[in-house]
Amino acid sequence: MKTALTPLSREDLQKLIDELLRDAASYPEKGLVADYIPELAKVDPEKLGIAVATVEGDLVKGGDADELFSIQSISKVFTLALALGKIGDDLWKRVGREPSGTSFDSIVQLEHERGVPRNPFINAGAIVIADVVLAGHQPREAIGHILHFVRFVTNDDSIAIDPAVARSETERGYRNRALANYMQAFGNLMHPVDLVLGVYFHHCAIAMNCCQLARAGLFLANEGRIPGSNASVVSPARARRINALMLTCGQYNASGDFAFRVGLPSKSGVGGGILAIVPGLASIAVWSPGLSDQGNSLVGTYVLERLAATAGWSIF
Ligand code: DON
C-alpha cells in the first residue's frame, strides 16, 4: 500500500483530462443506457464529462462536465453518511459490510440472510438506509434532509431532484418494491414500504453535474472535512470507513475488477456517473451514460482507469 499520493498541478491535470477525453472518444465499446427506468433511456449515450476537485481548491473539468445527469446510486454515499450520523454503529445491526458479488438489485441473498442486506450500496441496503433517514419524519422532510446534505457538502443550493426521473422510477420500481416488501417481512423496515421507497426513489433522482458531484465527494478525500471552510461533515474514522465500503462494494459485482483496474474508492450510478475518491488529494466525477453488464459506466470506468494510472493515483 502506498503511503502518500502526489498531487498534480492544475495545468497538468487539465492536460491529462483533455488527453483522456480525446482517447475515450475512440473507445470501442459504449455500453447500453439504462432503460428499466424509462426516463434514463432518453439520455444521449455519447455524453462524456469529467471533473476533478482537489483538496487544494482547484476544479478542473472537461467535456460535458456542466451538464446535469441523474446521480442514482451515487446518492447512496450521502444517505449512508446521514444514516450513520443519525444512529451510528447501530446501523450495522440492519445492514452488512460485505461485498455482495451479486447485481445491485438482486434479492437472492436476502432469504438466506434473513432480510439483512449485504451492504449499504446494493438497492436493498440503501432501502434500509432510507428507512433510517425517514425515522421521526414525514417523507418530504427526509427527502429535504438528504437534499440539504448534498447542497451543504457542495455549497450549491441549486441542486435539485428531477421529478420526471423520480416519477419514472416510482412507476416502474417493481424490483425495489419486491426487495422492500421482503425486508419488511423480516422486520427490517420500520415504516410502510411506499413511504420508504418514496424517499429512496427521490434521492436516486437527484440531478447533478460532474463539477457539483466532484465537489460533493471532497469531504471523503479530506478526512471528513470540507476543504476551504474546514466544516466537519463526518469524523475522520467515518470518512475512512465510508471509503472502505466504496472500495469493496461501490461497484457491486464489479467492485473487485474496479479495484484491480482503477484502485480508488468509488460509487457508480445507473445514470452513468461515477464518483471516485483519491484520499488526501481529490474527488473525481465522470459521466458517460453507457453501462456495463453490471450497471456501471463503461467509458467512465475506462477514463478513471487511465486517469489513476497516468496520475499515479491508485491507492495500491
Ligand atoms: O434503484 C435503482 O435501481 C436505481 N434507482 C439505482 C440503481 C443504481 O444506480 C445502480 N448503479 N449502478
Summarize this, please?
With 316 residues, the chain is an alpha+beta fold. 45% of the residues lie in helices and 10% in strands. The strands form 2 sheets. Strands 2-1-8-7-6 form a 5-stranded antiparallel β-sheet, sandwiched between helices. A 3-stranded antiparallel β-sheet has the order 3-5-4.
Overall description:
The chain has 316 residues and is of the alpha+beta class. It has 13 helices and eight strands. α1 runs antiparallel to α13. The longest helix is centred in the first third of the chain and has 16 residues. It is globular and about 55 Å long. The structure holds 6-diazenyl-5-OXO-L-norleucine. 6-diazenyl-5-OXO-L-norleucine (DON) binds next to loops. 6-diazenyl-5-OXO-L-norleucine binds next to loops.
Topology:
Elements: H1 10-25, E1 49-54, E2 59-63, E3 69-70, H2 75-87, H3 108-112, H4 123-134, H5 139-154, E4 160-161, H6 163-172, H7 174-185, H8 193-204, E5 206-208, H9 210-216, H10 218-221, H11 236-249, H12 255-261, E6 266-268, E7 273-278, E8 282-287, H13 298-311
Antiparallel strand pairs: 1-2, 1-8, 3-5, 4-5, 6-7, 7-8
The protein binds 6-diazenyl-5-OXO-L-norleucine (DON).
The site of 6-diazenyl-5-OXO-L-norleucine has 13 residues, from loops.
